[in-house]
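To the wet lab folks,

You asked to see what we're planning to order before we commit. Fair enough. Below is the target structure as tokens, and below that is the sequence we designed to fit it. If anything looks off to you, flag it before the synthesis order goes out.
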């Protein structure tokens, strides 16, 4: 059992052991709060020397050295900038060395909020799923982002709920007010499996007011961003997909050509997981993707009925949507634009302030 509740600071991947009040980039940035973490990085709210806040994504030593971190920087500074909305904005980048002398790539991004996966997992006592209208809104917004990427001929490569981030407060005054209401938790000392004592810090993303059971009139005001471009690449190029293998499309598992329709497969798998609280495919799919997918997709009606999460009238249109994403042959899958033209999703914001 892990000794750490969040990132494994004793992992060979080499996480950067940051903590509040620590300075980065030769004193330019001061860490004020931990926002989150993932398998390749941790993200920290920091204040720069001129009073500007940023979210600093600090990559592991492994992600710094294996080029996935550099690929994310290249994509965010390059073609992703042409996507009109709903993608991270990079402000600057630098390298930081840890106490062992290991180098970590750091990307300074606009502050964003918690992930859709955080929202799903918050439904602890009722099955870790989201309501249908929330999933329809989430899929609609992410399809908009995927449509923008497809126009730029970009494959995202990691279309999973932990990479769907809610918009967050970004103005300095708003951030200071939130920090005053909810200060950063203190670092706790944890002895790793290597015998070294580490300072571990709990993530505190800024709240966004949404809950797993938010009504439709509330969740429609959400703005979702598609983050994590470590695995992104050119359509049809040598893209290595991220995320669990049981959400990757058959063509990826068979080593065949990847394109924007591969993102659509992952979106369909993610939608099912959000709707039911359970992954669509088990590990048996990885070894025999076509036969297992054909069988499972063929019985979506019964799977959704057995889940008990959808009403009887909502199952047929949901099955139709999922099957349109999960066609075995990529050419037969819907595009992001076709998803948005359909009636199953809704996207955008009804707050009256967004364009």
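Sequence we intend to order:
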């Amino acid at each position: 059992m892990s000794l750490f509740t969040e990132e494994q600071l004793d992992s060979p991947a080499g996480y950067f052991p940051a903590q509040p009040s620590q300075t980065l980039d030769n004193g330019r940035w001061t860490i004020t709060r931990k926002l989150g973490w993932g398998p390749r990085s941790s993200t920290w709210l920091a204040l720069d020397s001129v009073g500007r806040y940023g979210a600093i994504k600090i990559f592991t030593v492994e992600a710094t050295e294996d080029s996935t971190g550099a690929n994310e920087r290249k994509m965010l500074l390059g073609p992703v900038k042409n996507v009109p909305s709903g993608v991270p904005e990079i402000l600057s980048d630098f390298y930081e060395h840890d106490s062992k002398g290991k180098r970590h790539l750091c990307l300074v991004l606009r502050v964003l909020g918690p992930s859709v996966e955080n929202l799903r997992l918050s439904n602890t006592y009722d099955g870790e799923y989201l309501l249908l209208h929330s999933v329809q809104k989430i899929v609609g917004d992410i399809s908009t982002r995927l449509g923008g990427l497809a126009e730029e001929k970009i494959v995202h490569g990691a279309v999973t709920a932990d990479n769907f981030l809610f918009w967050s407060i970004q103005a300095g005054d708003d951030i200071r007010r939130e920090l005053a209401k909810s200060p950063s938790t203190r670092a706790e000392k944890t002895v790793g499996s290597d015998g070294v004592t580490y300072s571990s810090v709990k993530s505190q993303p800024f709240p966004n007011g949404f809950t797993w059971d938010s009504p439709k009139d509330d969740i429609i005001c959400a703005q979702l961003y598609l983050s994590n471009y470590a695995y992104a690449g050119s359509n049809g190029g040598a893209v290595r997909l991220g995320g669990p293998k049981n959400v990757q499309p058959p063509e990826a598992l068979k080593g065949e050509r990847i394109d924007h329709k591969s993102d659509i497969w992952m979106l369909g798998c993610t939608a099912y997981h959000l709707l039911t609280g359970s992954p669509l495919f088990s590990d048996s799919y990885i070894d025999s993707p076509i036969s297992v997918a054909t069988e499972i997709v063929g019985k979506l009606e019964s799977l959704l009925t057995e889940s008990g999460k959808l009403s009887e009238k909502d199952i047929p249109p949901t099955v139709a949507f999922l099957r349109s994403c999960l066609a075995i042959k990529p050419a037969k899958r819907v595009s992001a634009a076709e998803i948005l033209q359909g009636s199953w999703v809704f996207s955008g914001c009804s707050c009256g302030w967004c364009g």
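Structural context that might help your review: The mean pLDDT is 93. Residues 16 and 254 are 35 Å apart (CA to CA).

Thanks,
Computational group
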